[in-house]
Design brief:
Number of strands of chain B: 10
Oligomer: heterodimer
Distance between the termini of chain B: 23 Å
Number of helices of chain B: 7
Largest sheet of chain A: 6 strands, mixed, barrel
Distance between the termini of chain A: 32 Å
Low-confidence stretches of chain A: 375-386
Number of strands of chain A: 21
Shape of chain A: elongated
Radius of gyration of chain B: 17 Å
Mean pLDDT of chain B: 87
Order of helices and strands of chain B: EEEHEEHEHHHEHEHEE
Strand order of the largest sheet of chain A: 2-3-8-5-7-6
Helix content of chain B: 25-40%
Strand content of chain B: 25-35%
Helix content of chain A: 55-70%
Radius of gyration of chain A: 33 Å
Strand order of the largest sheet of chain B: 6-7-8-3-9-10
Structural class of chain A: alpha+beta
Low-confidence stretches of chain B: none
């Protein structure tokens, strides 16, 4: 049978080539992405111990009590080394420049694993240990023009830049990290006197065990020590998972985009295989007549299909990985993370399963239908009488399969299902809208000139193929134009187009006793400090008296991961009487005023809508907190929507005034509409007067976000382009096969007096019209979706961007014209009689 | 003047290393409004001759004069125009355009010709072939006999001087075949159209004014048909 198939492959080479290329095009994006994921994961796994720097670490926003440390040590195995670390944000100053930095203490002997690569090869010096010098990240050196030996001010002390850290195993490559690191010894931290009550800091204890232990088991024991939510116990494995979360999300999303290409290629495969089966029906009938059973014929064509599927998958895997290799240098540059190429067996198997099983599930119903027609039907004079379209029920397994692939690729049942649902909903909607559209085309065709009329009739009366090509192109254009549309919207919003004042500077860690002075400082410089908001650290202990526990087990999906993170951390609380303009109450009422401690009522609490959803908190719920050891209860009286892109001090949880007023707190504030000179001058002077107050330069943050956004959109655009290419490939397959099928019609037209130019005009008009309308609707779709996303998801500004859709539509029109011309050459080369003769 | 004059027509094919002489030095003439049958076995070259007469193929040697025009020396586009105005063709396999309705198929030659007001004419021809109730049906919804009637209407709507018919009843059962042939003879007589009918059915051939036999590449006049 195998030899027979190989012999068959010599014929109909165009079909085989199209089929294989079509499938491989659909898989390239997905395979490239799986290659990226696998290489990325492997690199993380290899380095996770170095990234954490220890075997086990506990992080907390609060300093550890002696009791906590004793309890932890009681569950640890014998023989370990322990160091304490502190990480916090602060400003540094050199000359006339200041910057927000992440100051990290580097205890002696730490990191236990991995080595900091310093520009000037040296060990820890006496000066570093004694707290007189620091090591800085290279980007900080570049930003501030620092060189080894320069002096910087940090907190209340002056330090020498002793070295520059060129490579740091602990560098977590989250894009757009707000502040570059400065390493300092514990002595140095004391000298700078950075840590004050309420400072935004992270305390850590790192452990190194003498014997190689089961770290996950130890981690569980340590977690059990902390009954309260707050401290996080991390192992190298968890660090690996956390450190690349952003890239994981991005790759999950890109994976979904790549599924569009896979879907489009499935459309192409369906169409190609249907043509193939249509041509092979007579052959099948002859086999049946000669005594071959249907089972044997079925086996033969399944094997045939599988060989094609395997060939397409193999090419997809090779090209996809090659593509990933060629862009990995770019990825390394963008994400400042060196990745070694790694081909994961699991992912390779997954790609094979998707390629072959997907092909089988598309092809089998068509084969079955062809076989069902039976020998008698097949010998009918007009072969088209036998309906070769299987019922939709035959494709249910493929739909389930595609949904499962969506879930696996996105690592999320919710997102995978939503993607699947939306994708098919719009496909069904598309078909529903196209049907009357084609009917209309058919009706109005009579009003046009002959060539246009026949182009319209071809389109409207070959509905299945026209719709397949239409949806393929529209889908690709939608993706290609959607991402820049969203980007343009966000870009405009972040650039303050709608007049909302985005602050220039965002201040935090203002001590309570400094508030008045800092306010005066800004007032004196005619740049009033606004939105001064208190911030109090706390944690939720119960919701409706039900203990708010740290979840157990491991997160399997992205949703679970998010919930674990949310439940696992403390929270920042605040209070204010009147909401800011960036906040809108969507359910409930505003605060009634100051809390009356003599009343028996619970204090009022306002909660941000998404936060409420994630934690399952509803209107009227009682939420219990522990705020610096004190229990506080409150009742949810409203749910708010917050426009986070306002960069105004906003909080998930907000109390009414009069409840937390006496709690230890720090303050946040913003200052807006500053010129560059004003901004630099204020930062400098502020540092001199209030060295503990940290300032985020919002303009730099916005710049960074836009930069990240444009880098992300390059990746997404590349994936969308791949989808569009797959769409074009579907179009080319369709045009070629349509032209093959129509060679008889072409002959007849010519016989009846149609000139070659008129015939060419029909073909060109048909496919250019198809492409232009599909691109138009795809563009329209992207405009509508970007509008909905901007308004609903991002609460943002929407700016229609018409230039790109117009450009894409016109370009595709030209490409379609080229493809039609290229594919139809065979018709014009042949004599009229040769076009009709095969059918006589 | 004769409608059709064929003089010394030869045609050969090369198939692999074999040279096949399919038509050899044929000559014959047909007057306007007259009918001629060409009898021959399968593979005798009947269809090749018909495609040469339709100007769809070129002979190796010889001359085909149609209404005084030497179609062998004309450009393909000019032959196409001539065919569109003067020659109708009916095939054994009907060859209707599958995505066009019966009426649209019949209308098509007039549209190509650029003739206005063709719709009424097309309806009229559909009525003449007895299919006025099947105007909006697609070919896949018609029976074999109905398809051939549509093909006949399509070939005659341009009021051709010559109708070339290649085994028009070959794919139909006897009764339907007879009906179709009766229709063709009836219409060509009414329209004063010349007919060249290719068939292997001697009885059918006898209904034509001239009966020719094609064998071994040569054409022999067998005599006049029975009217």
């Amino acid at each position: 049978m195998f030899n027979e198939i190989l012999r068959d492959f010599r014929w109909n080479r165009k079909f085989h080539l199209f089929f294989i290329l079509n499938l491989s095009f659909g898989l390239i994006g997905l395979v490239g992405l799986l290659g990226f994921k696998s290489s990325f994961q492997e690199s993380i796994n290899k380095r996770s111990r170095n990234i954490l720097g220890s075997d086990l670490a506990i992080h907390s926003r609060m300093s550890f009590t002696d009791d906590q440390i004793k309890k932890v040590e009681s569950v640890l195995p014998d023989g370990y080394t322990k160091v304490h670390g502190l990480s916090m944000f602060s400003m540094i100053k050199t000359g006339e420049k200041t910057r927000l930095v992440n100051v990290r203490s580097l205890p002696e002997g730490f990191p236990f694993y991995g080595v900091l690569e310093l520009r000037k090869p040296s060990e820890r010096t006496e000066s570093f240990n004694n707290g007189h010098s620091v090591w800085v990240y290279p980007e900080l050196a570049t930003q501030l023009g620092l060189e080894i030996g320069d002096k910087i001010s940090l907190g209340h002390a002056e330090f020498v830049v002793e070295n520059i850290v060129d490579k740091d195993p602990q560098q977590s490559f989250q894009m757009g990290a707000m502040a570059p690191k400065v390493y300092i010894s514990e002595e140095g931290e004391k000298r700078a006197n950075l840590y004050q009550k309420g400072s935004t800091a992270r305390h850590s204890i790192h452990f190194k065990f003498k014997k190689l232990e089961d770290l996950e088991a130890i981690s569980k024991k340590v977690e059990a020590v902390f009954t309260e939510v707050g401290p996080r116990v991390v192992t190298p494995q968890k660090t690996g998972e956390q450190v690349g979360r952003f890239l994981q999300y991005l790759s999950d999303f890109l994976g979904l985009v790549s599924l569009v290409a896979l879907f489009l290629s499935s459309v192409g495969l369906f169409y190609l295989f249907r043509s193939f089966i249509s041509k092979k029906r007579r052959e099948m009938a002859i086999y049946l007549a000669l005594g071959r059973t249907k089972t044997e014929i079925r086996k033969y064509y399944i094997l045939y299909l599988m060989i094609l599927g395997l060939a397409g998958t193999l090419i997809g895997i090779v090209v996809g990985n090659a593509l990933f290799l060629s862009v990995s240098a770019l990825i390394t540059k963008i994400f400042t993370f060196n990745m070694e190429f790694h081909m994961d067996v699991q992912y390779t198997i997954l790609a094979f399963v998707i390629g072959t099983l997907g092909t089988f599930l598309i092809g089998f119903p068509l084969l079955q239908r062809g076989l069902q027609a039976g020998a008698n039907d097949l010998f009918q004079e007009d072969m088209r009488k036998v309906n070769l379209k299987p019922g939709i029920g035959w494709f249910v397994p493929w739909f389930i399969f595609y949904w499962m692939v969506g879930v696996v690729v996105s690592h999320s049942i919710k997102i995978g299902s939503l993607f699947f649902g939306l994708f098919f909903l719009q496909a069904i909607l598309g078909v529903g809208l196209l049907y009357p559209f084609f009917k209309l085309m058919e009706r109005i065709s009579r009003r046009f000139r002959l060539t246009t009329k026949h182009a319209l009739l071809y389109l409207s009366r070959h509905k299945a193929s026209s719709m397949a090509a239409f949806l393929a192109i529209a889908q690709g254009v939608l993706l290609l134009t959607l991402i820049p549309q969203i980007r343009a919207g966000l870009h405009s919003e972040l650039n303050d187009v709608d007049g909302t004042k985005i602050p220039t500077l965002f201040l935090f860690d203002i001590q309570e006793e400094q508030v008045k002075d800092v306010e005066k400082f800004f007032k004196d410089r005619e740049a009033p400090l606004q939105g001064i908001t208190p911030m109090i650290r706390g944690r939720i202990t119960a919701i409706n008296d039900k203990e708010f526990k740290r979840p157990e087990g491991r997160a399997l999906t992205r949703e679970e991961e998010r919930e674990f993170r949310f439940r696992n951390r403390g929270t920042n609380l605040s209070y204010r009487a009147i909401l800011h303009e960036s906040e809108t109450i969507i359910d409930g009422n505003p605060f009634t005023g100051n809390y009356d401690s003599t009343s028996k009522k619970l204090p009022e609490l306002s909660i941000e809508t998404r936060y409420a959803k994630r934690l399952g908190i509803e209107m009227g719920d009682k939420v219990s907190f522990e705020i610096l050891g004190m229990p506080v209860e409150a009742k949810v009286i409203n749910i708010r929507k917050v426009k986070w892109t306002s960069f105004h001090p906003n909080f998930f949880l907000m109390f009414q005034p009069g409840v937390l007023d006496d709690a230890p707190k720090t303050f946040l504030g913003v200052s807006d509409q500053l010129t560059v000179d004003q901004k630099n001058k204020i930062q400098m002077e502020l540092f001199e007067q209030f060295p503990n107050v940290s300032v985020v330069d919002i303009t730099r943050v916005v710049e960074r976000i836009l930069n990240v956004l444009s880098q992300m959109s390059v990746a997404m655009g590349a994936m969308a382009l791949l989808s569009l290419l797959a769409g074009l490939f579907v179009l080319y397959s369709l045009i070629s096969h349509q032209i093959d099928e129509r060679s008889k019609d072409a002959g007849l037209f010519k016989m009846m007096g149609f000139g070659s130019s008129e015939l060419r005009s029909v073909i060109l008009k048909e496919f250019v019209l198809l492409t232009l309308t599909a691109s138009f609707f795809g563009s329209l779709g992207s405009i509508v979706i970007s509008f909905v996303l901007a308004k609903v998801l991002f609460d943002g500004l929407w700016i229609p961007m018409l230039s790109l859709p117009i450009f894409v539509t016109l370009t595709l029109g030209l490409i379609a014209a080229g493809l039609s011309w290229f594919s139809s050459r065979s018709i014009f080369k042949k004599k009229t009689i040769d076009l009709v003769r095969p059918f006589a | 003047m004769n409608l059709l004059n064929i003089d010394g027509l030869s045609k050969s094919f090369t198939q692999g290393e074999n040279h096949i002489q399919i038509l050899r030095d044929l000559s014959f003439a047909l007057e306007k409004g007259k009918t001629a049958a060409i009898l021959g076995k399968s593979g005798s070259g009947k269809s090749t001759l018909l495609s040469l007469l339709a100007g769809l193929d070129k002979p190796d040697t010889g001359k085909i004069e149609f209404s005084g025009n030497d179609i062998c020396s004309m450009e393909e586009e000019s032959v196409t125009k001539l065919r569109n105005g003067k020659i109708g063709i009916v095939f054994q396999q009907f060859h209707l355009i599958s995505h066009l309705t019966a009426l649209e198929n019949v209308l098509l030659p007039l549209e190509i010709k650029g003739e206005k007001g063709g719709l009424d004419k097309a309806k009229h021809y559909m009525e003449r072939v007895g299919l006025s109730h099947r105007l909006d049906h697609l070919p896949s919804q018609l029976s074999g006999g109905e398809k051939q009637r549509v093909a006949i209407a399509r070939s005659l709507i341009i009021k051709p001087d010559l109708l070339l018919a290649d085994e028009p009843s070959g794919s139909l059962d006897d009764k339907t075949g007879d009906d179709v042939m009766n229709l063709i003879f009836e219409l060509v007589q009414e329209e004063d159209t010349g007919l060249v009918l290719v068939t292997h059915n001697r009885n059918l051939a006898q209904r034509c004014d001239q009966v020719w036999s094609l064998a071994g590449g040569g054409l022999q006049l067998e005599g006049s048909g029975v009217q």
